[in-house]
Specification:
five-stranded mixed beta sheet
Length: 838
């Protein structure tokens, strides 16, 4: 049977082949009849072997060959992605900006400091006031005049300062006692205020934190809200991806994400926010690779430092560490549950949920996070309900503002760039500790704005007034406050450092210091009478006094305190203009000085910071100290990079600067600042007013025992103003210094200086009982050899009145003065009879 079947199949196949061949022959015949040329060509080719068939194996081979370049490309792509993931994640992850800090608040026994200032300082640090109980770190309470506080602790340039509880007792505006938790009594130091940063080109700002520094509830809130399977998946969430894929296909584009925390980190850390399928595929692959190389905790820590959480002007707020300060003014460790929930909730849209612009949205989103936490068992329903009942408690304005003190920051950066390149400042996370005193800076800003506003209101047609100021430590040369204009947040022209204006009478102390060095006595007389000096160009120089009057023969201390121009010019010409210029250079002026007669009256143009350097040497009793705004620079790990120690160079003898200081104190006693003496009882302040030609510039420079202040007022167009040094800059200076805790100015008297009596008529050495005798200090090597007598009648009068023939030295409030006969205990009738002083 089988052979027959095979024969049948064979016969059928043969018949089929013949039929097929016949059909093909017919086709060829028909074709040849239409195209005879093709028939000839085919005949020349020879017999055909028939068509070759394409098998499945052929298709597979071709497919494999076609896939080779794809596989090679994909392999290289994966290798490249893997290298990118590893290199950035294991290397330097962020360009971390330098952080700039103010000086730390320090409390110690005997310190002059009031309750108002302490409370203001603590508020600036984000400390919370409580009504009772023991404070936690970052909390305080007042119990009468006693402050009970728990500090936060901080890594300073000189080591770690641990958190400690302290009790500080005040007596008025004096720190009476400081008790520390360790049982010690001494110095209590708070962490410094963060005042700014030096940012990378992309303006990203962050404070790096480790996972151990993040409160566990914040981590739980993040996982519950963003990726509750975080610790179980391998970088991707299949359910989330499928849900997003279906939604995106329906909407014909990428409309929804199913991203895990790992994917979000990859997008923010490595990729852009481009919404394409290609970017999404790359994100998924990189997430898988990242999970292969990093632990879950490492990924979580990186996410918490990378995530974008807000905007402050041009500065982007990244990471929970900085966001905590930005929104609440507190470090992470002090946040409540509701505050943590808010931070997590704002991840979805920092602008949309901005609590300062959209508080209702922010509260609703925060509550969603709290509900999710309760549903997943992270917190109880009661905890969720209690947290939702709380207000947002976000500070009205960011506690940590972007360069709150732009003029001071400009000064600091200018000094930093002498030691560091720009890239290091913007990316290495340096910690820069400065000398800024926030309280004094606040008083400077308020006082200048207040006085400028009042003056402008009184002179509405006057050009728009501006101002600038610098305050330094009179001892160390540290710049404690610096203001570049009446708008303290303006980041443009820094008038404290970048303008140069004629300093007017502020130059006069240099003239008198030169004269004192050459042996002039403070009691020595000079003619304040108009004169004309021929100049080499054929013109003449004719100085005049501000009141356009001559004052005759006056002594040096009067000429300086009342700022007489003619007398000062004559002294300068007598000692030599070159000598005055040399004195200015020794005082600290580093720019070229015009060596012309007008130098004696202030043709020299300086910026307020340069004037401060000049007067700093006077306030420090002849010791030159370069002004500095930086105390120390640390690496991001807290290792010291650079210290800025106190540099001192004695450039003048103590006796000469002592005499000059005593003369400058007379400014507040009987000179151009006498009207402000009552505001500073027993402070013995020293100072000098200055007014440039046509009243274009109003200056004042003054100092106490601990602070030096320089203020300038004028206008940017350099037009005349209605101001003098007294009516303008001095008024703002006095307003500011009245709010600052001052030490009395009590210069130490050198051994080669002696107080004695001098005649007010001609400056000669006289007796203490002479009418109008001036009690003044003098260098002993300059004292005259002869002492003039008062005359017989004066001696008899003093004997009858019981006056002390030796006289007594005035109190600290009297740098000089005339001997007043009517202050004697008896003999009033005798004084009147013989012409005693009235």
């Amino acid at each position: 049977m089988r052979p027959l079947m095979r024969l049948a199949r064979s016969s059928a196949s043969a018949l089929a082949r013949k039929a097929t061949q016949k059909q093909e022959a017919d086709k060829v015949s028909r074709s040849n009849s239409r195209h005879p040329q093709r028939t000839a060509a085919k005949k020349r080719r020879g017999p055909s072997s028939g068509r070759s068939r394409i098998t499945l194996g052929d298709w597979i081979t071709w497919l494999l060959l076609a896939m080779v370049p794809v596989i090679v490309f994909a392999t290289f792509w994966l290798i490249q992605l893997d290298q990118t993931v590893v290199k950035k994640f294991e290397g330097k992850r962020w360009a971390v900006p330098a952080k700039v800090f103010a000086r730390p608040l320090e409390l110690y026994t005997g310190q002059q400091l009031g309750r108002d200032q302490i409370t203001w300082e603590l508020a600036g640090l984000g400390y919370n006031a409580i009504s009772s109980g023991a404070p936690n770190p970052g909390e305080y309470r007042w119990s009468g005049n006693t402050l009970v506080v728990q500090t936060r602790g901080f890594d300073f340039w000189d080591g770690n300062e641990p958190s400690q509880r302290a009790s500080v007792s005040l007596s008025g505006k004096l720190v009476e006692n400081v008790d520390l938790s360790a049982g010690d009594t001494g110095l209590l130091r708070f962490e410094p205020r963060l005042i700014g940063g030096i940012y990378p080109a992309q303006n990203e700002d962050r404070i790096l934190v480790s996972l151990s520094q993040v409160p566990p509830q914040l981590v739980q809130a993040l996982i519950a809200t963003e990726d509750h399977d975080f610790y179980d998946h391998f970088g991707l969430s299949p359910r989330g991806v499928m849900r997003a894929l279906v939604n995106n296909i329906r909407n014909r584009g990428v409309q929804q994400g199913g991203s895990t925390i790992t994917q979000q980190l990859v997008k923010n850390f490595y990729l852009t926010s481009e919404r394409t399928l290609r970017r999404k595929a790359t994100e998924a692959v990189m997430a898988l690779l990242l999970e292969r190389h990093a632990t879950k905790d490492e990924i979580l820590e990186a996410y918490l430092n990378e995530v974008y959480l807000g905007q402050a002007g041009k500065r982007a707020i990244h990471g929970v560490g900085l966001a905590s300060l930005f929104y609440f003014g507190q470090p992470l460790a002090e946040l409540r549950l509701d505050q943590m929930a808010f931070l997590v909730g704002t991840i979805r849209g920092p602008s949309y949920y901005d609590p300062r612009r959209n508080p209702e949205r922010a509260i609703a989103r925060r509550n969603q996070v709290l509900i999710l936490m309760a549903e997943q068992g992270v917190i109880s329903a009661e905890e969720s309900k209690e947290a939702m009942a709380r207000p947002l408690s976000v500070s009205p304005k960011p506690m940590y503002e972007d360069n709150r003190y732009p003029a001071f920051m400009h000064f600091v950066q200018r000094n930093l760039k002498k030691e560091y390149n720009d890239e290091d400042l913007r990316s290495e996370g340096l910690r820069i500790f400065t000398t800024l005193d926030p309280w004094i800076q606040e008083q400077l800003e308020r006082s200048l704005a207040k006085r400028l506003g009042e003056i402008q209101k009184g002179y509405p047609r006057a050009p728009e007034l501006e101002g600038a100021g610098v305050v330094t430590s009179a001892v160390t040369g540290e710049v404690v406050a610096l203001l570049g204009g009446k708008n303290p947040k303006f980041q443009g022209l820094n008038r404290a450092t970048d303008i140069a204006r004629p300093i007017g009478s502020l130059v006069k102390p240099a003239v008198y210091l030169t004269a004192i060095e050459k042996g002039y006595l403070l009691a020595q007389h000079v003619e304040d009478i108009s004169f004309s000096l021929p100049l080499s160009n054929g013109k003449s120089w004719q100085p005049s006094n501000f009141d356009h009057r001559d004052h005759g023969s006056v002594n040096l201390i009067t000429a300086l305190s009342k700022s007489y121009n003619i007398a000062t010019a004559k002294i300068a010409l007598d000692v030599g203009i070159d000598s005055v210029a040399d004195t200015l250079e020794r005082l600290g002026v580093s720019k070229p000085i015009p060596r012309v007669p007008a130098l004696s009256l202030g043709v020299l143009e300086l910026a307020p910071i340069e004037v401060a350097e000049l007067y700093q040497t006077i306030a420090a009793q002849g010791f030159y100290t370069p002004l500095r705004g930086i105390r120390s620079v640390l690496t991001s790990e807290g290792k010291p990079l650079q210290r800025y120690p106190l540099e001192v160079d004695q450039r003048f003898k103590g006796a000469d600067t002592y005499l000059l200081t005593r003369a400058m104190q007379q400014t507040f006693i009987s000179g151009t600042a006498a009207g402000y003496a009552k505001r500073f009882p027993e402070m013995n302040l020293a100072g000098k007013t200055g007014t440039s030609n046509d009243q274009r510039d109003s200056w004042f420079a003054g100092f106490s025992g601990n602070y030096l202040g320089i203020l300038w007022m004028g206008n940017d167009e350099n037009k005349p103003t209605p101001l003098t040094g007294s009516s303008g800059a001095l008024s703002a200076w006095a307003e500011m210094f009245s709010k600052v805790m001052l030490d009395p100015l009590q210069p130490v008297q050198p051994d080669d200086v002696r107080w004695d009596y001098f005649s007010s008529k001609d400056g000669s050495l006289t007796e203490s009982n002479c009418e109008g005798a001036l009690y003044l200090p003098a260098r002993m090597d300059t004292l005259p050899d002869v002492r003039e007598s008062c005359g017989l009648f004066d001696e008899l009068r003093d004997q009858w009145s019981g006056a002390d023939s030796t006289g007594t030295r005035p109190g600290n409030g009297e740098a000089s003065g005339a001997r007043k006969n009517d202050e004697r205990p008896s003999g009033g009738w005798f004084n009147r009879l013989f012409g005693g002083q009235r």
